[in-house]
Specification:
505 residues, alpha/beta, Rossmann fold, 2 domains, six-stranded mixed sheet, four-stranded parallel sheet, 17 strands, binds iron/sulfur cluster
C-alpha cells in the first residue's frame, strides 16, 4: 500500500476501539462499504457482518472503504485483488457507481463474465439488492438475498468448499445454495429473501467505537420487519411482519455501549412497536444510559414514552406524516388523521422534546396535498420547533405501487417550487429537500434491470436516461426486472392494495 494511504489508514485505526484484527483464516474476505469510513462505521449492518465473518473459524475478514485507501483493505493495507472474496455491504442504490470505482481502483475486471479464477469472487448483500439485484447482475458474481443470519455462512462455506474447482463449476455449485443468486450460472433462478428469527440474536450491536463515525453512537438492533401496512414501504412488503429481539438482549447490548461511555442508538423500522419498549427504556434510564431512537410513528407517541425518551437525553424527534393531507395519508395506508398528529405533537412539547423533524414525500401517484401544507406546517410550528424534510416518492419493487412509474422531473420540480414558496412565506428556516436529479437516479437504479450495466460501467447516467428508467410503468402481467426475487406477498394482493390507493371506494 502506498505511504499516503497507509498513514491515512493509521489515523482512522488509531482513533477507534473494538474487535482486534483477525490474522488467520482459510478464506480471506474484504468486506467493503462503498462509501466513506465515517458512513460505513455508522452502518450497523456493516458492523454486524464484520463480526459474523470473523467469529467463523475458517474466515478472516478485513474492512475496506472508498475513503481512506480505495482499493486496499483497512486493517492490513492488502490489495483488494489479493483477497479470496470481496463482499460489498450495500445500504442504498447510489452506492452502485462506487462499486465500479472500487473495482477499477483494485484493477479487477468489472463484469462477472470477464473475471477468471485468479480474481476474487465478488459478492453483494443488503436491502437494495435483496429487493432488486437486476442492475448489478452482470457485475456481481453472487448475491445474498435477505438476512445474513438466515444462512449467510452457507454461502461462504460453499465458496470455501469449491476452492480448487474451476470458476464456472464453483459458481454453479454456489448457485445451488438457498438465498444465493448467481446470475452468470443461473440467470433464471428465483429466490425469496431469507428472514432470520431475530429473537434468537443474543448480540446485535456495534463492534467498534469510532469518533470519526458519522453517528458516533453504540448501535443496537431492536427489530426487523414491520406490522404496519404502509403501501409505499419496502420494509413492510419485503421484510414482512415485525420480528423483535428479546428485551433482555437489547438491554444487555445497550448497557455494554453505555458502560463504554457511548450514546446508544436503538434501531429498527418502528422501534416504539416493541412490546417491551417502555420497560427497556425504563431500565436504560435507571442505569443512566443516554439513548435515542431511529424514528417514531407519530400515532405511537404517548406521554410516558416521551418522558422516557427525554430522560434518555432525546431533544429532537423525527416523525414522518408523509403528506399533510389526511386523505392522501389514508391512501398510503398510514392511517392517522391530523388531529391525532397535532395532539401528539403537543405531547412532545409537554414532555420536553425541543424540536421535531417532519418528513414528507412528494411526487405521490395521487397528488401531494400541497394545499394542506401551509396550514399543517403553520399549526405544527405553533406547537413546537420544527424542521422539515422532503424526499421524492419512488415506487419500490415488491410494494403495491411497484408497477407505477416515478413522477417526471418537471412535475417534481414544480412541486418543489410550490413547497419552498409556502415554507419561505411561513419563515420555516430548517428545510431539507432531496436533490431531484439524485432522486431520479435512485429511482432508475431501484426499478431497472441489466440495462443499467452500460451506465454503471461508464461511471455515470444522464438524467434523461435515468428519468426514462425511473418513470417506466409496467403493465399487468409484464415480467418485472426484479422477478428473480420472490415477493413475500402475491401479486393479486399487491394489485388490490394499489387499487385501494388509487381508486378509494
Ligand atoms: S410504520 Fe414505518 S416501517 Fe412500518 S410499514 Fe409504515 S413506513 Fe414502513
Amino acid at each position: 500500500m502506498p505511504w499516503k494511504e497507509l498513514s491515512d489508514n493509521r489515523k482512522f485505526l488509531d482513533s477507534e476501539t473494538g474487535l482486534p484484527a483477525k490474522k488467520y483464516g482459510d478464506l480471506s474476505v474484504a468486506l467493503v462499504y462503498p462509501g466513506d469510513y465515517s458512513a460505513g462505521m455508522s452502518s450497523l449492518g456493516f458492523q454486524l457482518i464484520y463480526r459474523y465473518l470473523n467469529i467463523h473459524d475458517n474466515i478472516r475478514c478485513e474492512r475496506a472503504f472508498s475513503n481512506p485507501s480505495k482499493g486496499y483493505s483497512f486493517e492490513s493495507g492488502a490489495r483488494l485483488s489479493d483477497f479470496d472474496v470481496i463482499s460489498f455491504s450495500l445500504s442504498f442504490e447510489l452506492q452502485y457507481f462506487e462499486i465500479i470505482r472500487i473495482l477499477e481502483s483494485a484493477k479487477i475486471p468489472l463484469l462477472s463474465k470477464d473475471r477468471t479464477g485468479k480474481d476474487p469472487l465478488i459478492t453483494a448483500g443488503g436491502i437494495c439488492v435483496s429487493m432488486n439485484p437486476g442492475p448489478l447482475s452482470e457485475i456481481i458474481d453472487v448475491f445474498w438475498a435477505g438476512d445474513f443470519e438466515a444462512g449467510g455462512y452457507a454461502m461462504y462455506e460453499a465458496i470455501l468448499n469449491t476452492r480448487g474447482k474451476s470458476r464456472k463449476d464453483a459458481l454453479s455449485s454456489i448457485s445451488g445454495i438457498n438465498g444465493c443468486l448467481v446470475p452468470l450460472s443461473d440467470p433464471q433462478k428465483r429466490c425469496a429473501p431469507q428472514a432470520a428469527d431475530v429473537s434468537l440474536l443474543r448480540r446485535s450491536c456495534s463492534c467498534f467505537i469510532s469518533p470519526k463515525a458519522q453517528f458516533n453512537m453504540w448501535l443496537v438492533e431492536v427489530a426487523r420487519g414491520c406490522n404496519w401496512n404502509c403501501r409505499f414501504c419496502l420494509i413492510k412488503w419485503l421484510c414482512g411482519k415485525s420480528r423483535f429481539r428479546l428485551k433482555e438482549d437489547i438491554i444487555a447490548d445497550a448497557l455494554e455501549g453505555a458502560k463504554k461511555g457511548q450514546k446508544v442508538g436503538l434501531l429498527g423500522p418502528s422501534v416504539l412497536d416493541h412490546p417491551d419498549i417502555e420497560s427497556i427504556m425504563e431500565e436504560l434510564v435507571s442505569e443512566k444510559a443516554v439513548f435515542s431512537i431511529s424514528s417514531a410513528r407519530a400515532d405511537r407517541l404517548n406521554i410516558r414514552t416521551l418522558e422516557l425518551l427525554v430522560k434518555g437525553g432525546i431533544k429532537q424527534l423525527t416523525v414522518a406524516p408523509e403528506t399533510p393531507d389526511p386523505e392522501k395519508r389514508r391512501r398510503l395506508n398510514k392511517n392517522f388523521d391530523n388531529a391525532v398528529f397535532f395532539e401528539n405533537l403537543e405531547k412532545c412539547r409537554q414532555s420536553g422534546i425541543q424540536s421535531v423533524k417532519l418528513y414528507f414525500m412528494f411526487g405521490l401517484p395521487f397528488g401531494d396535498g400541497i394545499d394542506f401544507l401551509r396550514d399543517f406546517v403553520k399549526k405544527a410550528a405553533g406547537i413546537v420547533n420544527i424542521s422539515v424534510g422532503f424526499s421524492a416518492f419512488v415506487p419500490k419493487p415488491h410494494t403495491p405501487f411497484q408497477r407505477l412509474g416515478m413522477m417526471s422531473r418537471r412535475e417534481l420540480a414544480r412541486t418543489r417550487a410550490d413547497v419552498l414558496d409556502i415554507l419561505k412565506k411561513l419563515k420555516i428556516k430548517s428545510v431539507s429537500f432531496e436533490d431531484i436529479r439524485t432522486s431520479v437516479i435512485q429511482g432508475a437504479l431501484s426499478r431497472s434491470g441489466r440495462e443499467m450495466t452500460k451506465f454503471l460501467k461508464s461511471g455515470r447516467i444522464g438524467v434523461k436516461d435515468a428519468e426514462e428508467c425511473a418513470s417506466r410503468e409496467y403493465k399487468p402481467g409484464e415480467t418485472l426486472p426484479w422477478n428473480n426475487i420472490i415477493s413475500p406477498y402475491d401479486e393479486k394482493l399487491l394489485s388490490e392494495e394499489k387499487d385501494k390507493a388509487l381508486c378509494p371506494g
